[in-house]
Amino acid sequence: MYDIVLAFITSFLLTFFAIPSIISVARKKELVDEPGERRAHSISTPSLGGIAIFAGTIFSIILWTPFKFFGDLQYILCAFIIIFLIGAKDDIDPIAANRKIIGQIFAASILIFFSKIRLTSFYGIFGITEVPILLSILVTFFIIILIINAFNLIDGINGLSGSIGVLMAFTFGTWFYLVGRVEMASISFALAGSVIAFLYYNITPAKIFMGDTGSLLLGLVASILAISFIEHHRVIYSTPYAQYAVKAPPAVAAGILMLPLFDTLRVFVSRMLKGQSPFKPDRNHIHHLLLDLGYSHMQATAILIMVNIGFIIIVYKFQGMGTLNLLIALLVMASLLVSFVIIIRNIKTKKMQKSYK
């Protein structure tokens, strides 16, 4: 317990005191995110906050994680560094989406083949339990890349990606602590401490953005925690912590990450149906819809955080429905919520157009 608390405090303090210096250097070197057509901000803002998040998180993990219980930590840290380098390069000198994906695949390969972070069961979805190794590898690649990019794509307004990251880290971290997985709990709370410190500077008016360096790291950690959460249920019943097992692990993990996962899948499908690249930027994300309704950055962030908390409560309360049924229910509820927002946005747009005539 003490290691987890110290990991949280250490990462918070290091990130909190590092960010002012990063802001100063970024402004002097003009490493800022400029306003634009798709941007939700109106002034030049440094976008290197992810460097402080990375530094605080990795320093705290190395200092406080019990290595004797976590022999594969070296490989996870290697994946962290790869994602950090990709994000930092993109924040300083933007790179093509396909090159970022190649780097993400490299990081995912280390996790899958060296850390053995891999989904090996579908828990009865479509009648499948044990997954053949090739399918297991392919599905795990897809999940890791999806979650990494999900956090990257929702990082469009102040506080959103960071707040979702904190919610995710606290939820998974608390569960890992309860089931005796101290190493995973340490990673979770180290990340949470860093991101909370960052959010102090990111609330409106934002002094700094996390950039790709931060959002990609959040996504990578989220994918590691989600897959480990699902996989640990294969052995938890033979441990003294069986009372903390959930009945539909994949659906519960999806519920914890519902906002970034659903919004990313929705915009990807929407773009592909239009014959566009799924990575083509647009203003169709859920946070853009809320901004169009007149909500401020922080109001939109608060609404979306409450919605995600609602999904976590729902998957916990209704885990007895079974994995597939619960996943379908989540998709239906999320689709209805987004459809409602789009309808209200369209009605408001029509009224504004009529008023200009």
Give a quick precis of the structure.
This protein is mostly helical. The chain is built from 13 helices and four strands. The longest helix has 34 residues, at 323-356.
List keywords for this structure.
two-stranded antiparallel ribbon, mainly alpha, globular, 13 helices, 357 residues, single chain
Give a structural overview:
With 357 residues, the chain is mainly alpha-helical. Helix content is 70%, strand content 3%. It has 13 helices and 4 strands. The chain has a two-stranded antiparallel ribbon. It has a two-stranded antiparallel sheet with strand order 3-4. Strand 3 and strand 4 form a beta hairpin. Helix 9 (249-256) runs antiparallel to helix 12. It is globular, with a radius of gyration of 20 Å. The model has no long low-confidence stretch (mean pLDDT 91).
Radius of gyration: 20 Å
Q: Gap between N and C termini, in Å?
A: 64 Å
Helix % is 55-70%
Strands across the major sheet, in which order?
A: 1-2
> Largest sheet, described in full?
2 strands, antiparallel
Q: Strand pairing plus helix content: what structural class?
A: mainly alpha
* Sequence of secondary-structure elements: HEEHHHEEHHHHHHHHH
Strand element count? 4
Number of helices: 13
Poorly predicted tracts of residues: none
Q: What proportion of the residues form beta strands (DSSP E)?
A: under 5%
Q: Categorize the overall geometry.
A: globular
Arithmetic mean pLDDT: 91
